[in-house]
Design brief:
With about 150 residues, this protein is mostly helical. Helices cover about 80% and strands about 0% of the residues. The chain is built from 6 helices and no strands. Helix 2 (about 15-35) packs antiparallel against helix 5 (about 90-120) and helix 3 packs antiparallel against helix 6. The chain is globular, with a radius of gyration of 17 Å. The chain starts with a helix and ends in a 6-residue tail after the last helix.
């Protein structure tokens, strides 16, 4: 069995996996930029596990978690350290709205991956969830590393 066929057999569509990994690099970068405490990051990890297990049925609870996170960002005035403080607040509001929209799209993508994995045999499903989650968490760490090295700001 060739590698692309094996990946497709165990993990689902390769383009979804690519988007999941690239998306987690993006979110790892933003989480590092916002310097969030470990609580919300742990909550994100639990939501990912939940979405991979439940599939599209978990999109609504994950969206509520995301919306609460956006509300907390606004209420607590979280800004990344690179954000110029003399810039009008409407630009930060627009940035948060774009991030919120991207997060909702990412939630749907993880839910789709979870639904695809639910249709696999039990052994492939468990391996697929573990490998997918591991790849996403490594990609998130990669995004944090990219931010810490100063790219593209530095």
């Amino acid at each position: 069995m060739s590698l692309p066929v094996a990946v497709s057999h165990r993990l689902g569509h390769p383009w979804i996996l690519l988007l999941l990994v690239l998306g987690m690099v993006f979110w790892g970068w933003w989480l590092a930029a916002l310097a969030l405490p470990w609580g919300p990051i742990l909550g994100l990890g639990l939501i990912l596990v939940y979405l991979l297990g439940v599939g599209m049925g978990g999109v609504i609870p994950a969206s509520v978690f995301c919306s609460m996170g956006v509300a907390a960002l606004v209420a607590l005035d979280y800004f990344p350290e690179f954000w110029p403080m003399n810039l009008h607040y409407k630009y930060w509001a627009l940035t948060i709205m774009v991030l919120w929209s991207a997060a909702l799209g990412y939630i749907c993508l993880v839910g789709k991956q979870g639904s695809d994995l639910r249709q696999r045999p039990s052994r492939d499903r468990q391996w697929g969830r573990g490998i997918t989650l591991g790849m996403m968490l490594l990609a998130m760490q990669g995004g944090r590393w990219i931010y810490q090295t100063g790219w593209p700001l530095g």
